[in-house]
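Quick log. Single chain, no ligands specified.
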Amino acid sequence: MIIETLQRLMDANLAGLATDLTLTDIGALIGMFSALLSTIGNLLYTWRKDRREQRDSDAAWARRQKEP
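-> predicted structure:
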């Protein structure tokens, strides 16, 4: 019974929130979501770039060690 009551309250609050959003609010939310996706993409790209550069550096170091 308590869970059902809480569920009804949450549903009512979410429905009320959705109807109170203006275009400005929606634009701000889309902007925040876009910034978050861009940040995650940049972190992934930088991580892969660092791994690639480390691999190249290790290979160059190994070549220098083999030279007489």
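The mean pLDDT is 86.
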